[in-house]
Known about the structure:
Blueprint: H1 9-32, H2 39-67, H3 73-98, H4 113-172, H5 176-192, H6 194-211, H7 222-239, E1 245-250, H8 264-272, E2 279-287, E3 290-297, H9 307-321, E4 326-332, E5 335-343
Parallel strand pairs: 1-2
Antiparallel strand pairs: 2-3, 3-5, 4-5
Helix pairs in contact: 1-2, 2-3, 2-4, 3-4, 5-6, 6-7, 8-9
Amino acid sequence: MKLFAGFGRRHVLIALGFSFVVELAHLSYAWLGKEELRLGIIAIWTVLYFLNALIGLGCAVAADNLLGEAAGTAKRLILPMLAAAIVTTVWGETVLYLWPWIEAKEHMVFLSTLHRIAFRFSVASGWAMLLIGLYTMLQASRRATERLHRTQLAALAAERRVLEGDLRAMQGRVDPELLFDSLLEVDRCYARDVEAGQEALDALIRFLRAALPGDAAASATVAGEQELAEAYLALVAQRADASPLVDISVAPEARTLPMPAMLLLPLVRWALDGRSATLLQIRAQRRDAALEVSVRSNSVGSATSAEPNIAGVRERLARLFAGHASLDVTISADARHARLQIPAP
């Protein structure tokens, strides 16, 4: 662990502001006392205050790094204050010993060297208490903000995991009407022809395997949603006299992209609109930082007959992506088109 890790531009700005405020207070006192003001001395003292402030903040940063997150406020105040007072007293004594004319204007008389050092230490402790107290409050506020941000991110992640689990559980709830009709169709196909019955049964098994959730920890992908849609269309084709022509095109780079469960199938059911369509097109590709999925059909059904499917998708998008996903829907007399865009890693 680096002792002064985290010390940077923010601390320099705090020290600069502190040094200007302290020197301004001294100038006000000198002005009220009608003392002579010399720009050279003012600049030197401002620089000294700035360096002292940097030392104090450096001690505070070092104490933070040494004590860690578990330390209390008292330790964070007292230890850096003592360290800053000691270091700046030594530093100040050295500077004033080398250049005694800097403080010649103060005409201060000390009884002994110990008296002078004690005086310097008390002055250094006073400003260190002010500076480090201010810095500690700022750091406490910053830590509280960071903890709140981490808590909010954790809560959002937990909510997303719960929602993903709900969606995967929803995926396992097979439409009872669809299942019942498919079982009847299997019976009818077996009664007519064993081979046709086996095909119908295989289509039902394929759909059930795709619809039932697998590993709860696994993330749904475009490929998985494509498999579910294809299984559904194959199952529907078994029960229809004339099934729609299906054209599915998924870009290779889009197949492994994550896609929440049960987003594509509702769009497919909406596009078919009660199997009135004779052509269904599904496209999936990556566009920059988004996954774009397009579902288009030549359905001639009513505009509101399958609206619950769209409403359900919109609700899931709002809960999953909080405004960062979009679903554009267009309906004409002989066509339906849904364009879905979700963030992609």
